[in-house]
Recover the amino acids of this structure.
C-alpha cells in the first residue's frame, strides 16, 4: 500500500483546545494536541490510517498488549523555526528504531509511509501546537500495541499504531544526583533492552523509586552478570569525559541506541574531540574521580537532550563532579545540538526534517 502525499483521511475537531495552553507554563505530558493518527493492522495488512480528534480508545479487556506486553513506543520532538516551519529531528531514525523494537517483540512491521506521512499530516493539522517559545517543543509519541482480544500467549495477529503529541516546556532540570545500581538489572544479553518495549520501563520503576527514597534522582544501570560495567542511567544513555576524552558504553543488545547519543558523539567528533565507544567499568569511574580526571558526566535523551550529572554515588560514597559551567564538551555539544534542532546552525548531517507550512 502506498499513500499519496497528505491523503490520510482526517476527521478534524470542530473547536481546537489550543486556547487552554499557556506556553509559559506547560505541564509535561498532560495536555495533548487536538488530533491523533490511528492505523490498524489486521488480516495480514495495514489498513488505511486515519486522523481523528485526540480521545479515548475502546478496548476489549482481553486486549493482548495489556496481558503479555507486546507494546512499543518512540519519543521525538518537533520545534518551530524562526520562519514558522516545523522542524523534526531525525524522524527516520525513530521510524527505523520502532521497527527494530517491533521485530524483537514479534510485532508487525510498520511501513515508512504510514509513519512519515502520518507524522507530517498530523503536524500540519496541529501546527499551532508546536510552541514558538525558545526551549519548548512538541513532544511526539508514536507507539504500537497488540490488539487481538485473545488471552492465549502467542504473537497477536492484529496491532494498532498511533501517534499523538503534547507540548512540552523548556527542560530546566537541576543537575542530577545518581547512584550506581548494585542489585537490580534493566537488561541482559539476549534480552530486549535495545527495544523501546513498554515492559522494560515498568520493570525499572521499582528500582528507580528505591533510589529516589535514598535521595537520588536516578540510578545508573550496570551489567546483568557482574554489576561491574556501566550501562545507562534511567532512560538516558550515559557519557563521561575522562582526561579530555568523551567515553560512552558501546551500543549493544543491552543498551538502547539513543538518537541523541549518536548525535552527541557525531558532533563531538566534528569538534575534534577524541570519542571512545567502549566498555566503562565502575572501577574506572571511581579511579578517574580519585585522580581528578573525571571531568564530566551526563545523560543523553530526547527529553532533556543533555542532563548533567552533579554527583555519582557508589558503595557508600558520593563522588562530586566539577561545576556544570566548567564542562567544555557537554556544554558545547548541547548548544550546537539545540541550534541544529531549531534551525539556527547548519545541518551538516541532514538530521532536520522540515515541514514548510
Ligand atoms: C529512549 C531511550 C534513550 C534515549 O534515546 P533517544 O533516541 O536519544 O531519545 C536511552 N535509553 C533508553 C533506555 C531509552 O528508552
Amino acid at each position: 500500500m502506498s499513500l499519496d502525499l497528505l491523503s490520510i483521511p482526517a476527521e478534524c475537531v470542530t473547536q481546537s483546545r489550543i486556547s487552554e495552553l499557556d506556553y509559559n507554563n506547560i505541564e509535561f505530558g498532560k495536555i495533548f494536541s487536538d488530533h491523533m493518527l490511528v492505523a490498524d493492522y489486521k488480516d495480514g495488512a495495514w489498513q488505511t490510517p486515519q486522523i481523528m480528534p485526540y480521545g479515548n480508545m475502546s478496548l476489549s479487556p482481553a486486549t493482548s498488549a495489556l496481558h503479555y506486553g507486546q507494546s512499543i513506543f518512540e519519543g521525538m520532538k518537533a520545534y518551530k523555526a524562526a520562519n514558522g516551519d516545523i522542524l523534526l529531528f531525525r524522524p527516520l531514525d525513530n521510524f527505523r528504531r520502532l521497527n527494530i523494537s517491533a521485530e524483537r517483540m514479534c510485532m508487525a512491521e510498520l511501513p515508512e509511509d504510514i509513519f512519515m506521512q502520518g507524522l507530517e499530516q498530523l503536524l500540519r493539522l496541529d501546527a499551532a501546537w508546536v510552541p514558538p517559545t525558545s526551549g519548548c517543543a512538541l513532544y511526539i509519541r508514536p507507539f504500537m500495541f497488540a490488539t487481538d482480544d485473545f488471552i492465549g500467549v502467542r504473537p497477536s495477529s492484529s496491532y494498532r499504531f498511533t501517534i499523538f503529541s503534547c507540548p512540552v516546556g523548556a527542560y530546566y532540570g537541576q543537575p542530577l544526583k545518581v547512584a550506581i545500581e548494585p542489585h537490580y538489572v534493566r537488561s541482559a544479553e539476549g534480552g530486549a533492552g535495545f527495544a523501546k518495549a513498554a515492559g522494560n520501563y515498568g520493570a525499572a520503576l521499582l528500582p528507580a523509586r528505591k533510589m529516589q527514597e535514598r535521595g537520588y534522582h536516578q540510578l545508573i544501570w550496570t551489567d546483568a552478570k557482574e554489576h561491574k560495567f556501566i550501562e545507562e542511567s534511567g532512560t538516558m544513555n550515559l557519557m563521561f569525559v575522562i582526561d579530555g576524552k568523551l567515553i560512552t558504553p558501546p551500543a549493544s543488545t543491552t543498551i538502547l541506541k539513543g538518537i541523541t547519543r549518536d548525535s552527541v558523539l557525531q558532533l563531538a567528533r566534528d569538534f575534534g574531540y577524541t570519542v571512545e565507544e567502549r566498555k566503562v567499568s565502575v572501577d574506572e569511574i571511581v579511579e578517574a574521580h580519585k585522580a581528578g580526571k573525571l571531568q564530566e558526566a551526563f545523560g543523553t535523551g530526547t527529553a532533556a537532550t543533555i542532563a548533567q550529572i552533579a554527583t555519582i554515588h557508589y558503595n557508600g560514597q558520593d563522588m562530586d563532579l566539577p561545576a556544570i559551567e566548567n564542562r567544555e564538551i557537554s556544554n558545547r555539544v548541547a548548544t550546537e545540538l539545540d541550534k541544529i534542532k531549531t534551525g539556527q546552525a547548519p545541518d551538516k548531517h541532514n538530521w532536520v526534517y522540515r515541514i514548510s507550512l
Observations:
- The longest strand covers residues 137-146.
- The mean pLDDT is 95.
- Residues 75, 196, 232, 235-237, 256, 258-261, 300-302 surround pyridoxal-5'-phosphate (CB under 6 Å).
- The radius of gyration is 21 Å.
